[in-house]
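quick one before i forget lol
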Amino acid sequence: MAPSASVAALRAPTLQYIDYQAGFGSGSYGDPHFAVARYLGCHDDGTQEWCVFEGDGVEWLVYPSEANYSETFISLSFLTPGQRVNLWADIVNFNDASVEVAVQRVEAITTASDLDRIWFALQGFFTDPTDSRERAEVFGNTLFQLYDDNQLFSYRFSIVENCDGTSQTGPAMILSDPEDGWSNCAILTYIGPDGFDYTEMGMLQGPRYRR
């Protein structure tokens, strides 16, 4: 794990408490599952409303349904995007890198861990200090890499204590591309309020980004 002084310098997020429970029993709409998941937010494109959690390496998608009604979405809107929750849900449909769920219960976790502080510190816009044309944008659990405003890569990521099978100290990011199944672990060699550096396993060095 990163030195405690480094993590302590990161802003502690403001986290809200909810304990939402739906009016149906576990297993009523599909396979019942539990995960400690990260709430990524709710969206409305004018034709469809949905909310997203990330847990156990997949995205949990919440759409309006017989089980997920207006009270479900109102309750979730009180959460801070990025906040971890205890999530109980019935899986009603499996996709390649996501599942559609009926939310049975959501209990918010209101104590921010070191990994939570890191996740929140990664959010925003960054530039390579040696080449202003190279930038990164981080929104939710997605990291976009750009050059001259053209997107080069986009990765989903999750924050973990360390990369397996290495003596290097963490924290680390699991980077993945759900479309082709690629994934790799990357050590965060620096994380602070002003930006971050990381090096993927198998590489000698990686990008540096600053706000």
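fyi Confidence is low (pLDDT under 50) at residues 1-5.
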